[in-house]
Amino acid sequence: MNPPASNPPKNQVIFWFSLSLAFAMVYSLIALEEAFSNQYIVQDDARQHVFWMQRFFDPSLFPDDLIANYFQSVAPAGYTTLYRLIGFVGIHPLLLNKLLPMVLGLITTSYCFGLCLQMLPIPAAGFIASLLLNQTLWMLDDLVSATPRAFIYPLLLAFLYYLSRRSLIPCLVVITLQGLFYPQCVFLCCGVLVLKLLRWREGKIRLSSQKNDYWFCAAGLGMAFIVLLPYALTTSDYGPIISAQQAKTMPEFQPGGRVAFFDHNPWHFWLEDARSGIFPRRKRLPIAVCAGLLLPILLRFPSWLPLVKKVKGETVLLTQLALVSLGMFVMAHAVLFRLHLPSRYSKHSLRIVLVLAAAIAITLLLDAIIQACQRLAFPRIQGKPVLGRAIVTLVGIALILSPLGFHNFPKTNYEVGRKHGLYEFFAKQPKDILIASLSKEADFLPTFSGRSVLVSREYGIPYHTNYYNQFRNRAIDLIQAQYSPNLAESKHFIRQYNIDFWLLDKTAFNPQYITKNRWIMQYQPVAAEAQARLKQAIVPAIVNVIDSCSVFETEKVVVLDTECIAITGNR
C-alpha cells in the first residue's frame, strides 16, 4: 500500500476489480440458491411490484382488478419497460425478479470500485469499498427485491462516477435513467450539481469561476426537468396523495400499522425509523463502515498518514451528497408524503457515503501501519517487515468474514408459499374470478395463482386516497360479512363485489384470530364488533355453510363456492 503513481498499475486494478466482482457474485449466488429452493417462493416486495406483470405473458389476467391496476399505475416507466422488454425473449417477470439482483449487484460493484479510485487511486481501496457496499446491500432487502428502489445504488454511483470524471453525456444519460427507474434519485443529483458550483476559499463559500461548471450544471438540471416533467403533469386516477394531517388520524400509520410511520419516540422517529428516520439502521451496517466517520479527521494529518497526499478532491462529492441528502430529507418531511418517504432521500445515499469514506479511511490507516513497521526495527523475513503485513492480512480477513456475525446474511426476505394445493386449485379456475379472504394466504394468490383478490394485507398501501378509500371499504365490508350472524349480509356482500370464492382460515372464528392480526384490527369499529360477537359465542352465519359449500380444503384453510352460499337459506 505504498503511495503509487496517480494511475495505479493495470495488473493491480484488474486483480482487485476481479476480486470485487467475485465477492459480489458469491453473495448473489447464495441468494439465488434460496430463490430457487422452492417452486412457490417470491421476494416479499415482488408480491406488490411484480405480480401484475404476469399480464405481459397473459393479458387476460387480473381483468378490472383494482389492486393490479393501481400497482401498475405507480410503477416507474423504465422499470415497467425493462420487465416488458425482457419478457419478449421469454423470461417471466417473476423469474427475472430473481435473476436481476445479480446483474444490479455487479453493476453497482463496478461503479463503486471506479468511483473509489477517482477519490483515492489505490486498487485495494476500491476493493474495500465494493466489499463493504456489497455486505451492506446484502444485509438489507433493497437490492434483492429488484423493485425500483434496487436501482438507486447502480444509478447513483454511476452518476457520481461520471461526475467525478466530468463526463457530461453519461451523466445526462444516467439522470434520464434515474427518472425512469427511481425519480427520487434525480433530486439528489440535482442538489449535487448545484453544490458543485460552490467553492470553499479563504474560509468563505464562493461561486465557481469556471464557465464549464455552469454549463454542466445547467445541462444536468435541464435534463432533470425534462425527465421529471411527466410526473408533474400527470394526474393519478388513484390520487391525491394522502396528507400528513390525514395520516396522523389513521391507524395504518401508527406503530404496528401496515405502513407505520409516526412514533412517539423522537430518537427513533427522526433518526432510525425505516420510513421517517435519516440514518441507516446500525444493525444493518458492517461495523467497519463506522471508520468512515474518521475520514474528516484523518485527512488533517498528512504528516502521520502519508497516503493522504494521494486523496483527490473528488472526495468532496461525499460531503456534497451528504448535505443534499439532509436537505431533501428535511424537505420531504416538510411536504410529507408528496415526495414519498423522507428516508428514501437519505438512507441509500448515506450508505454510499459511509462505505466510500470508510474504505478510504481504512486504506489510509493500513498504509500508515505498513510505513511505520518499515521504519521500526520489527522482525523481518528476507528483508521484508512481517508485522505490518500480518496486521493488514488480519484486517482483510476480518472485513471478509464480518458478515458471519450477522443473523440471516444475506437477507433476502423471500416468502415461501406452503399451500401448494391451494395455489394450484385457484390457478385452474377461470381467469376472471375474484377471491375474498382475510387469510394471509391471500397475499400469495395473485403471484402464485394469477387470480384476483378483493383485499389482502400485502396490498393495503394507503398513500393514494382514491385507491385506499376503495380498498378500506372493501376490507370493512369483508370483515362485516365474514363475522355477521345474518347470512343475508354475507349474500349482499357477495353480490356487491361479484365474489366467486371465499377463502377462510379454520381458526378465523376464534376471538384471538382477530386480536393477533394487526392488519384486521386497523379497521375499526367493525373489527372490534366482530371480536366482541365471537367472545359472546355468537356464531357467524358463514360458519353454517362451510360443510355444504366447501370446494377445497386443507388442514388449515377452506374455500367456499359463493354460488352455493347464494342459494343457501339463512339457517
Summarize the structure.
The chain has 571 residues and is an alpha+beta fold.
Could you name the key traits of this structure?
alpha+beta; elongated; 571 residues; five-stranded mixed β-sheet; disordered N terminus
Description:
With 571 residues, this protein is α+β, with helices and mostly antiparallel strands. Helix content is 54%, strand content 7%. It has 26 helices and eleven strands. It has helices at 10-35, 46-49, 66-74, 77-87, 93-119, 123-137, 142-145, 152-164, 168-181, 184-195, 211-233, 244-248, 266-272, 295-298, 316-334, 347-375, 387-401, 420-427, 445-448, 465-482, 487-497, 511-515, 518-521, 526-535, 546-549, 562-566, and strands at residues 41-43, 198-201, 204-207, 380-381, 384-385, 414-416, 434-437, 452-453, 501-505, 550-553, 557-561. The strands form four sheets. A five-stranded mixed beta sheet has the order 8-7-9-11-10. Helix 9 (168-181) runs antiparallel to helix 10 (184-195). The radius of gyration is 28 Å and the shape is elongated. The N and C termini lie far apart (83 Å).
